[in-house]
Amino acid sequence: MQPEKVQSLRLEQRRKRRPQRAVWTIFIVVALATLGAIYLARPRPGDNVRVLKSPGKTTGEASATARAAGNGLPVGATGGTNSVAGVPDDVVLTVSGYIINRERIEISPRFIGVVKWIGVKKGDAVTNGQVVVLLDDSEHRARLAQAEGAVAVARANLRKAELWFERVNQLAATDIESRQAQDDARQALEAARAALQEAEGARQLAQTYVDWCTIRSPINGVVLERLVDPNELVVPQSFGGARGPSTAFLAVADPKDLQVEIDVNEADLSKIFLNQRCRVSPEAYPDKIYAGYVAEIAPEADRAKGTLQIKVQIVEPDKYLTPELTAKVEFLKP
Known about the structure:
Blueprint: H1 3-9, H2 13-16, H3 20-41, H4 59-70, E1 91-101, E2 104-107, E3 113-118, E4 125-126, E5 131-135, H5 138-173, H6 179-212, E6 214-216, E7 221-226, E8 233-234, E9 250-253, E10 258-265, E11 277-282, E12 290-297, E13 307-314, E14 326-332
Antiparallel strand pairs: 1-10, 1-14, 2-9, 3-5, 3-8, 4-7, 5-6, 7-9, 10-13, 11-12, 11-14, 12-13
């Protein structure tokens, strides 16, 4: 090969070297990509929280939820809460129970009788002392009249005994009558007084039975049940059997005196004490909230269920609280 051709095939020294600027550019790009990958791969506190955006939530609310989770708070909690679903931090326990009347009174007869008239029905309001039922009192009024006659006879006998005693005393003072006659007259007077007292007692008893034929409401309240109808036989206690006479006229209760009856698990009893403040919300009206307090803690637990019965008194109940419906009770911190 000729020297001229060999010389022409050689590369110049400056053309054999790569440009230094391009090498540094590639190195910087690779370094930045590596740092970005390391930063994105680093674990963060909120990575295990899944945030779903519901139709009712705005983007800001979803971001607030994510921030709360990232700060170690439960999902749905904010600075003023410490439990799921936004439960206030003053609540130590939430339990459901049944609304009940503190006192349910069944008005019963004191003796066997027949209903002559009943003036109320289920749902009617009654006042203390209001006449609600009348029993047939014809027999007892006859006995009352008989007792009044016996009282009149006893009074006449007493007047006679008093006159006789005075006369014997006058005669005994002049030694016309003996001391024995004076003692007999005194005993007859005492017997007449005792007979009058007995007759008056019998009359009072007959009057009591007549009064018992008029049945009055013992409280201000509402008729929960009407258990009898006119001309129906009632008795003070059941003789047994499904077709026996009724033992009560009405069931009444005060609608302004309500409680919530709760069975609390024994593991939660340490969170409850007497007079503890509570919040009550009926399940039918969850937006209604009522103040209450622990009024009663049962002295004995239910071994089979492992629970203890608690009764929470509602301070100011209204028409939205219906007995036997469920209600949620939040027990508050002291």
